[in-house]
C-alpha cells in the first residue's frame, strides 16, 4: 500500500462518508469516542504516538509484530506496512465495539497480513471480566479495563494465551502491550514466545524490569528508553536503541 504524505488531507472519502487519514492510512473512528487522544490525533490528520510507531516500524526486521490493545486500529496501517514480505501482524482487542472498528480500519486499508482477534491476552484461556461502558452506559473506548467483579458496563470477554495462538515457529520481533494493567498475565501467557524469540517489549506504563528478568530468567532484558507512555525493553547486547 502506498503511504500518504502528512501534507495530504486529513479526510478521505470511503463510499459517501469521509474518513480520517494520515500518512499511514485511513481509519474508522467509533462514534462518540472522537474526544479520546488517539481519535483526536487521527481526526486531525496525524498519527497517534508517532515516536512509538516510528520505532516499531524501524525495528520490525523480518519478524512478526504482536499488538495488543488495538482500540479502533490506529496502529494497524503503520505496523502492517512496515512488515517484511512474509511477516504477520497479530492484533488483539477485547472490547467488542473497538474490535469492530479495528476490523473496519483493516478492511479499508486492505491489510492482508493482519490477524485480528476479539479477545484479551492472559495467562489462561477462557473468559475474564472487562468493563466496556461507564455507569451511564457510555462506551469507554480505549479506557476499557479489566475488573474482578461483575456490574454495570461489565461483560465477559474471551481470553487467550499467546503461546496457543501464535505458532511457535513464527519469529516475533516485537511484543507491544497496551492492556490496561494486565501486562503480567499477558506476558506469562507468552512465556515460550518470549523465551524463544526474545522480542523487543513495548509495554505501556509497565516499568518493572526486575519482574521481567525474574520471570524470564537468563534472557537479560534491559530498559532502553521510553516512548510516550511506553517502556521499551530489549535483550542486552542487541544493539537496539531509541
From TrEMBL:
Name of the featured protein: FkbM family methyltransferase
Pfam family, one: Methyltransf_21
Methyltransferase FkbM domain location: 83-206
UniProt xrefs under NCBIfam families: fkbM_fam (TIGR01444)
Keyword annotations: Methyltransferase, Transferase
Region named Disordered: 1-25
Alphabetized InterPro entries for the sequence: FkbM_mtfrase, SAM-dependent_MTase, SAM-dependent_MTases_sf
Coiled-coil ranges from the UniProt annotation: none
Single GO MF descriptor: methyltransferase activity
One of the GO BP terms on file: methylation
TM regions (residue ranges): none
Compositional bias (Polar residues): 1-16
Amino acid at each position: 500500500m502506498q503511504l500518504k504524505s502528512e501534507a495530504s488531507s486529513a479526510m478521505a472519502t470511503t463510499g459517501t462518508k469521509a474518513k480520517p487519514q494520515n500518512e499511514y492510512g485511513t481509519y474508522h473512528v467509533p462514534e462518540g469516542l472522537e474526544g479520546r487522544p488517539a481519535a483526536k490525533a487521527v481526526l486531525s490528520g496525524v498519527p497517534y504516538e508517532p515516536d512509538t510507531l516510528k520505532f516499531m516500524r524501524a525495528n520490525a526486521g523480518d519478524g512478526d509484530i504482536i499488538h495488543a490493545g488495538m482500540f479502533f486500529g490506529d496502529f494497524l496501517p503503520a505496523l502492517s506496512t512496515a512488515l517484511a514480505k512474509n511477516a504477520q501482524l497479530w492484533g488483539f482487542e477485547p472490547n467488542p465495539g473497538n474490535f469492530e472498528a479495528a476490523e473496519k480500519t483493516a478492511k479499508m486499508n486492505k491489510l492482508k497480513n493482519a490477524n485480528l482477534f476479539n479477545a484479551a491476552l492472559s495467562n489462561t484461556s477462557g473468559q475474564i471480566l472487562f468493563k466496556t461502558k461507564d455507569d451511564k452506559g457510555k462506551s469507554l473506548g480505549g479506557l476499557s479495563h479489566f475488573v474482578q467483579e461483575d456490574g454495570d458496563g461489565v461483560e465477559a470477554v474471551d481470553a487467550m494465551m499467546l503461546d496457543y495462538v501464535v505458532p511457535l515457529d513464527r519469529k516475533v520481533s516485537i511484543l507491544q502491550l497496551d492492556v490496561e494493567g494486565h501486562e503480567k498475565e499477558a506476558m506469562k501467557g507468552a512465556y515460550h514466545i518470549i523465551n524463544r524469540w526474545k522480542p523487543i517489549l513495548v509495554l505501556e506504563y509497565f516499568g518493572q524490569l526486575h519482574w521481567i528478568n525474574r520471570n524470564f530468567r537468563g534472557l537479560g532484558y534491559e530498559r532502553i528508553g521510553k516512548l510516550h507512555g511506553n517502556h521499551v525493553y530489549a535483550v542486552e547486547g542487541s544493539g537496539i536503541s531509541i
